[in-house]
């Protein structure tokens, strides 16, 4: 009986993840085939790539679910250093510049987005630090500073790409992990205040970011400029109504929303599947987070618990930011909707991260399993 319990992972997490990935494959194709046919001369261009990445992600998830998560702990130093090197390489001639942002490295058609790797790597490193400093986590210098230092180094390198939203999500995830680890609320509030002040300074000192922020307050002040994407997103969500226009019948994907398969895919979901479709997607994310939290609470050790907390927090933060941007609840940022938005690095790494959670769940007794 004991061996069987070790072999079984949480099926709810597995099938919910698969459901989100399948929705992603369908919606990426539905939102992209018009532009793919015009630009790539192949309406299945994004679909074929997304299916390849989903397949690789599936195998990565299964592999990670079978490899003891404690092996990650032994590789923490190497993972942290490798991620640092990848982030530095982005800033060299190996970095690929697209639309004014240098966020990819690659050779030929093979590319990788190191900032996506950094999201997961920072969780692994911070989990290890929290485990080693569990009795000193309340001390600013010995406990808090090493965690914040790792995230800040990654944040600084990602900012040079530049990519404020991804860097911010890494810092926010670290703060959540420290909070769950038992850091005093006053310190958490202080860290949050410092982070907010830094973000305000970064926005205020960049005309591009400031313009985006001001357009968020009233996107219709510049409907053909900085407010364009948000306005088109709102049109999509509004026209979808309760039940949507029908799968594949979006109007905004006809070159109104640029790259609709990416950061604004939630708007296309709302337009084609309506309010009901949006609620279903959000409930799937909510259920996934709920199951992951249960695994974190019942994890056999603090390292496993922190890994699950970090991955779950990263998923939750990205969902909130992506949906908030699509609904004009916060300034536009380029952050994907996990498992659903088009993007190979994001999909594969998030599915592998879910595999780690599945592995931790093998050591946890849930629902009498």
UniProtKB/TrEMBL annotation:
Q: What is this protein called?
A: Probable peptidoglycan glycosyltransferase FtsW
State the taxonomy lineage: Bacteria, Bacillati, Bacillota, Clostridia, Peptostreptococcales
**Topologically, how does it sit relative to the membrane?**
Multi-pass membrane protein
> Which residue windows are transmembrane per the record?
12-30, 50-67, 79-98, 104-125, 137-158, 164-181, 188-208, 264-290, 302-327, 339-360
- Pathway this chain belongs to: Cell wall biogenesis; peptidoglycan biosynthesis
* Statement: the UniProt record of this protein carries the keyword Mitochondrion: no
Name where it mostly resides: membrane
Q: Where in or outside the cell is it found?
A: Cell membrane
GO MF annotation terms: lipid-linked peptidoglycan transporter activity; peptidoglycan glycosyltransferase activity
Q: What does this protein do?
A: Peptidoglycan polymerase that is essential for cell division.
Family from the record = Belongs to the SEDS family. FtsW subfamily.
Q: Which organism is it from?
A: Alkalithermobacter thermoalcaliphilus JW-YL-7 = DSM 7308
User: What UniProt keywords apply to this chain's record, in alphabetical order?
Assistant: Cell cycle, Cell division, Cell membrane, Cell shape, Cell wall biogenesis/degradation, Glycosyltransferase, Membrane, Peptidoglycan synthesis, Transferase, Transmembrane, Transmembrane helix
Q: Which InterPro entries match?
A: FtsW, FtsW/RodA, SpoVE
Reaction equation(s) it catalyzes: [GlcNAc-(1->4)-Mur2Ac(oyl-L-Ala-gamma-D-Glu-L-Lys-D-Ala-D-Ala)](n)-di-trans,octa-cis-undecaprenyl diphosphate + beta-D-GlcNAc-(1->4)-Mur2Ac(oyl-L-Ala-gamma-D-Glu-L-Lys-D-Ala-D-Ala)-di-trans,octa-cis-undecaprenyl diphosphate = [GlcNAc-(1->4)-Mur2Ac(oyl-L-Ala-gamma-D-Glu-L-Lys-D-Ala-D-Ala)](n+1)-di-trans,octa-cis-undecaprenyl diphosphate + di-trans,octa-cis-undecaprenyl diphosphate + H(+)
CC terms in the record's Gene Ontology section: cell division site; plasma membrane
Q: EC number(s) for this protein?
A: 2.4.99.28
NCBIfam families this protein is in? ftsW, spoVE
* GO term, biological process aspect, one: peptidoglycan biosynthetic process
């Amino acid at each position: 009986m004991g061996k069987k319990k070790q072999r079984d992972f949480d099926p709810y997490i597995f099938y919910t993840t698969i459901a989100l990935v399948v929705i992603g494959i369908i919606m990426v194709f539905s939102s992209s085939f018009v532009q793919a046919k015009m630009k790539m001369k192949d309406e299945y261009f994004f679909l074929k790539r997304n299916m390849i990445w989903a397949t690789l992600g599936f195998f990565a998830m299964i592999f990670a679910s079978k490899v003891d998560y404690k092996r990650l702990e032994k590789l923490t130093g190497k993972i942290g250093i490798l991620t640092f090197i990848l982030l530095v390489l982005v800033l060299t001639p190996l970095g690929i510049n697209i639309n004014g942002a240098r966020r990819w490295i690659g050779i030929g058609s093979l590319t990788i987005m190191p900032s996506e790797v950094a999201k997961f790597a920072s969780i692994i490193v911070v989990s290890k630090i929290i485990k080693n400093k569990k009795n000193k986590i309340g001390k600013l210098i010995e406990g808090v500073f090493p965690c914040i230092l790792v995230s800040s180094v990654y944040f600084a390198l990602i900012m040079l790409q530049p990519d404020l939203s991804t860097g911010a999500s890494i810092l926010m995830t670290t703060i959540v992990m420290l909070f769950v680890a038992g850091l005093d609320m006053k310190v958490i509030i202080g860290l949050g205040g410092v982070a907010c002040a830094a973000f305000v300074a970064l926005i205020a000192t960049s005309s591009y970011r400031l313009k985006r922020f001001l357009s968020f307050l009233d996107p219709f002040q510049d409907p053909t400029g900085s407010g364009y994407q948000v306005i088109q997103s709102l049109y999509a969500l509004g026209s979808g109504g309760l039940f949507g226009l029908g799968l594949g019948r979006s109007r905004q994907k006809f070159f109104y929303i640029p790259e609709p398969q990416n950061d604004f895919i939630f708007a296309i979901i709302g337009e084609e599947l309506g309010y009901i479709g949006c609620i279903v997607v959000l409930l799937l994310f909510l259920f996934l987070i709920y199951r992951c939290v249960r695994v974190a609470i019942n994890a056999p050790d603090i390292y496993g618990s922190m890994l699950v907390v970090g991955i779950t927090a990263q998923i939750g933060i990205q969902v909130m930011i992506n949906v908030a941007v699509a609904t004009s609840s916060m300034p536009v940022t380029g952050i994907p909707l996990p498992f659903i938005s088009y993007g190979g690095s994001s999909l594969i790494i998030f599915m592998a991260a879910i595999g780690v959670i599945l592995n931790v769940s093998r050591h946890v007794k849930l629902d009498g399993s």
